[in-house]
Every structure is written in C-alpha cells, then in structure tokens.
Design brief:
Layout: H1 3-54, H2 60-64, H3 71-81, H4 87-99, H5 102-109, H6 115-124, H7 131-143, H8 147-160, H9 166-176, H10 178-181, H11 185-194
Helix pairs in contact: 1-3, 1-4, 3-5, 3-6, 5-7, 6-8, 7-8, 9-11
C-alpha cells in the first residue's frame, strides 16, 4: 500500500471515528434529557401526593407506594416542601412517610448508591427525629471521607439535636486532613455556638444554615 493510500484510509478512519463519537454524544444527551424529564415529572407527582397526605387524603399514601423504593426521589421532593410546612400538616406528612418505610430506606441510602443520592438522604433525615436517624447519620459520618456528604450529615445531626461532641469532631477533622475538613470546619462553629445557652446561629456565609 502506497503512502498516499495509507493517508487516505487513515483520514477516512479518523473521520468515521469522529462521526461515531459525535452521534454517541448526541444520543447520550438525548437519553440524559429524557431521564431528567421523567425525574421532574415524578417529582411533581410525588409533591402532589405529599400535599394530599398533608390535607388528609386517605388514598394518597397508597398512591405514593410505587415511588417508595426511590429514596433519592423521596428525599429531594421532601426537602423542597419540608421547610414550608409546620404543625399538623408536617406531622401528617412525616407520619405518612414513616408508615411507608421511607425513613428506613433513607437510612440505608446513606451508605449505598451514588453520591448525590447519599447527600439527599442525609439532608432529608433531618425531618425524621429519633435515635435511629441520629445513629445512622453518625455511622455514615464516621465512614465517609466525602466533605459535602459530611456537611449534610452534620447539619442533619444538628437539626436532630444529636451532633457529635465538639472534641470528637475536632479529632475527626485532624484524622481526615486539611483537604477534607475545610468544607466541614464551619460546622464546628455551629456546634460550639449551640453548646451555649440562648439563641444559636447556623452558618453558611450569608444565611442561617451551612451549605
């Protein structure tokens, strides 16, 4: 084969490879957009069912059941509404989710699956007071080296009133090293302030919560 033929076939191969790569990227984008649309539709449906549960809808929990195994979906939908409700409505929603076993699935999700889902589960567990939630968050916190997850878990423990002792947190930061502890360090301030009587302050740089 002459040099000219070799160059010709090489250029064809590179061109074909580029086309395949381009079509692969387009297909991946279409699939991702489809998945995102489906997730958004599911979140809308779950939020609607949450509203029905808060209004006392008798059949809403059973209609929520098909989504119950999707811990991340439940967690993200819950965090969108939980800060907006108080009193009896909040109690009805949390009781309905506990009845479906959502809190148990969220506790399992702390140590399984993708990073985004684990963070969402940690944040959502702040709505489920009790020793089981606090114990699961502490265990996941001790096992994780992901700084963002640790921030979410510590904030949830602060909400539940079960944050680790300040001395334990400092020792843990020393073990983790500086790269892993920078995002977590502001929580130390929250814990130390919370240990004093009177109003407490949460930190995120501009609001009352660490993010």
């Amino acid at each position: 084969m002459s040099l000219l033929s070799l160059l010709w076939w090489s250029s064809l191969a590179f061109g074909a490879g580029a086309l395949v790569w381009m079509f692969t990227l387009i297909a991946a984008r279409l699939v991702r957009e489809r998945v995102e649309r489906a997730r958004a539709a599911d979140q809308d449906e779950v939020r609607s069912l949450f509203l029905e549960i808060m209004d006392g809808g008798a059949d809403a929990p059973s209609r929520l059941q098909p989504y119950g195994h999707r811990a991340r979906l439940i967690a993200e939908a819950l965090m969108e509404v939980i800060g907006l409700i108080r009193g009896a409505e909040r109690d009805r929603l949390i009781a309905g989710l506990v009845g479906l076993g959502a809190d148990e699935r969220l506790r399992r999700r702390l140590t399984h699956g993708g990073r985004a889902g684990r963070i969402a589960a940690a944040e959502a567990l702040s709505a489920f007071p009790g020793p089981n939630s606090a114990a699961a968050l502490r265990a996941a916190l001790a096992a994780s080296r992901d700084a963002d997850f640790r921030v979410a878990a510590l904030n949830a423990l602060l909400d539940l009133g079960g944050a680790p002792a300040l001395a334990d947190m400092v020792r843990d930061m020393q073990r983790q090293g500086s790269c892993q502890t920078k995002p977590v360090a502001p929580v130390i301030g929250s814990v130390s302030v919370a240990s004093w009587p009177g109003p407490t302050t949460r930190f995120d740089g501009s609001t009352a919560r660490l993010r």
